[in-house]
Amino acid sequence: MSTDVMVASATLDIEKIRKDFPILERKVYGKPLVYFDNGATAQKPWAVIKGIEDYYTQLNSNVHRGVHHLSQQATDAYEASRRKIQAFLNAKHEHEVIYTKGTTDAINLVAYSYGKQFVKAGDTVIISAMEHHSNIVPWQIMCEDRGAQLKVIPINDKGELQMDAFAQLLHDRVKLISVAYVSNTLGTINPVKEIIELAHQYKIPVFLDAAQAVQHIPIDVQELDVDFLVFSGHKIYGPTGIGILYGKEALLNQMPPYQGGGSMIKQVTFEKTTYHDLPFRFEAGTPNIEACINLGTAIDYVTNIGLPAIQQYEHELLEYLTEQLLAIDKLRIIGTAAEKSGVVSFIVEGVHPYDVGVLLDKLGIAVRTGHHCTQPLMEFFGIPGTVRVSLAFYNTKAEIDQLAAGITRAVNMLT
Ligand code: PLP
User: Fold this and answer.
1) CATH at 374
2) Global pTM?
3) Do 191 and 64 fall into the same domain?
4) Catalytic: which of 5, 33, 141, 373?
């Protein structure tokens, strides 16, 4: 860890940061809210909430359509936000940043469009055993449609990818590899750089589901040399209904449109339509304008605090959380990879995860229970589900103490 990062972390003022998130002041069942479901969706700072209000009170109009003042201002803000996202990811071109409805929408876009262009009968697409259903089902649908096979990189008992087995899966009929940067259930940080380098030796493009990564780890798409990368706005303190597809220009330019409609065309006649250039070719219809603009606001907010400092602080929280949970009798952590981000899943011997979740809820503590949209992963571990604690930089060690006390109480009551 560099000295710069250590200094930045030491200067994070969590109490001040918490005041930026009004929802953290509310009570649940008369108790202060303790929010540990950040992997599902993160809370929003005032900057984003006010940004949405400002949009509707000052700017509301359609983008790329009107000659009038409001439409021009809205369009400027919409495109300025795209440039912020470009800078955040260090994409080479702003037109490599495409607005989508979210991670799921972006994966479906690529599965459909890339699949149509590049995947033929007998080809292979590779995913991993720890994927979210969003990064399984669209590829499954596409493979079925194209007559291709879906292969799965296996994992070990700690929840790490088996890289030797991965290398064995590579051959020249593999048309794409799609893996999570960070597992939403296990918190495993996958060795994405290594995956990309290996895949590129076979000229196979790599698609990263960064839904659980962008808010925790600084990402440079050019340095990674990743071909596609997607994430959701709502998990990085931005609005819902907005996500990003980053794709290399050369690939996106070869891909057919995913949806037809307004904004994505150059010329329409009843005989033939010609399509717009990137990024608009993949942005049919009126977008979620206030969300596109305020994803930029959320990214400004995160960038101002500094992702390296966030990463350092969340890592301290993760270590503390893991320590506290391991001290609880009958509790087993699922997902013990060497490299982890701020997610801890666990089960308590003899207790259903749902019951733990309900008891914690009564204490004002929000966690997620269930299969976390990773049913094949649950099958691998032979469990029905887990309790998942997912961290954000506004969480504190005091909240982790409350959580540990709550779980201990639940274990005593239920076993
Ligand atoms: N991929 C991962 C790893 C996720 O954690 C999630 C959501 O939890 C998704 C994909 C789907 O994201 P969204 O529902 O925002 O489209």
Assistant:
1) 3.90.1150.10
2) 0.97
3) yes
4) 373
Is the pLDDT at 7 greater than 70, yes or no?
Answer: no
CB 406 within 8 A of CB 413: no
Separation of alpha carbons 196 and 245, rounded Å: 18
Residue-level pLDDT at 66: 78
Q: Check if 213 has its Cβ closer than 6 Å to any atom of ligand 1.
A: no
- The answer to whether 360 touches 345, Cβ cutoff 8 Å, is no
**Hey, which of 37, 38, 103, 128 would you mutate to test ligand 1's pocket, going by the most ligand atoms within 8 Å of its Cβ?**
103
Q: Tell me if 75 CB under 6 Å of ligand 1.
A: no
DSSP assignment letter at 362: H
Say if residue 12 is in the same domain as residue 142: no
pLDDT tens track for 43-84: 999 999 999 999 999 999 999 877 999 999 999 999 999 999
Residue 174 main-chain phi, psi, to 5 deg? -80, 125
Residue 274 confidence (pLDDT)? 97
Between the CA of 107 and the centroid of ligand 1 the distance, in Å, is: 10
What residue's CA is closest to ligand 1, atom 8? 40
Same domain, 108 and 203: yes
Residue at a domain's end among 304, 322, 337: 304
